[in-house]
Amino acid sequence: MNTKFKKIKVASIYGMIGNLFLFLIKSSIGLLTNSQAMTIDAFNSISDVITSAITFLGNHISSKPRDADHNYGHGKAEYIYSLIISIVMFLLTTNLIYSSLKNLVIPKEYTYSPWLIIVCLLTIILKLLLYIYTAKIARKYDNLLISSNAIDHRNDCVLTTLNLISVLLASKGIFTLDSLVGLFIAVWIFASSFQIFKKSYDVLMDKAIDTKIEEHIIDIVNSFEEVKSVDHFASSPIGYQYQISMTIYVEGKLSTIASYEIADRIKNFILSSVPEIRLTLIHVKPWKNDELND
Fold it and tell me: Where exactly are the structural domains of the chain?
């Protein structure tokens, strides 16, 4: 297992341990005080335990090298499990939104406790540390699974800060914000899960590479003076990277060997300078001054 997958494995383990701890203390205090916001925050933490576990499993599978049955490796497991994460989040938040709306109409008795403030502060500190750690790994390896975890940790900092505000108001006898914060947290989780779902779905449906990266690659190809034109550029995801193909036109008088040497130089340069690319296929065709061969 290379360094990338080891780092993601460790990050997912930290996420599971940290979120399980937060779930236990949040759910306990939420039940004691009957705080809607804290109870939903506890559900948010248990969903984070699930997502960290799925990240661990997805990372374990996607780290396997290619074999006879999987010529491009197992990288798409990352997106399959990210899709599962989003669906789990959908299911959890749908019920939470309903519960929050119901509690707005029929408020429950809420008992203030200073432990609510302590739990909120502890959550913010722990989640901030997890966010800094996972975001660093996500930036370095551009991995959807760990990026989803980093976004989730960041969102939790914001959501628990809102929860803290509602608790501070409750300490002054203002309890109306508790249910509203609970609803906001539930809606936020739902929106985040939709973003993860869309990104995973796009990759599994072979969405083309980002247009900026495509333009950058074409600029690289055009920088080779032997290339007269580039055509038929196509791309498709293979795991967390992409396979690209294109047709280049070179001087028709060049020998076959010379033409393919140009294609090899272009391919090697792309693979060494564009980390998003896993495989490059270049078809070479002769160029004529009056027209391009179709």
Answer: 3-204, 211-287
User: Which CATH class, in words, describes the domain spanning 211-287?
Assistant: alpha beta
Closest CA to 35 of 173, 179, 164: 179
SS3 category, 249: strand
CA atoms within 13 A on the CB side of 94: 7
d(CA 194, CA 87): 9
Q: What percent of the chain has pLDDT over 70?
A: 90
Q: 71 pLDDT band (50/70/90 cuts)?
A: low
- In sequence order, the β-bridge partners of residue 284 are 248
- Domain 3-204: which CATH number of 1.20.1510.10, 2.40.50.630, 2.40.160.50, 1.10.10.10: 1.20.1510.10
Q: What is the DSSP letter of 292?
A: B
* CB-CB contact of 72 with 238 (8 Å): yes
CA angle 132, 135, 136 (to 5 degrees): 85
Which of 11, 38, 25, 45 has the alpha carbon at shortest distance from 130?
A: 11
Q: What is the pLDDT of residue 109?
A: 66
pLDDT digits (tens, 9 = 90+) for 100-157: 787 677 666 677 888 989 999 999 999 999 999 988 888 887 776 778 778 878 888 8
Smallest CA-to-CA distance from 40 within 97, 104, 113 is with 97
Distance CA 270, CA 278 (A): 10
Task: Report helix, strand or coil for 103.
Answer: helix
CA dist., res. 174 & res. 166, Å (int): 8
For residue 207, the 8-state DSSP code is P
Which pLDDT does position 107 carry in this prediction?
64
Q: What is the largest CA-CA distance in the chain?
A: 86
Q: Which of 23-32, 53-62, 113-122, 215-224 has the lowest mean pLDDT?
A: 53-62
Higher pLDDT among residues 171 and 273, named by residue: 273
Cβ–Cβ under 8 Å, residues 185 and 37: yes
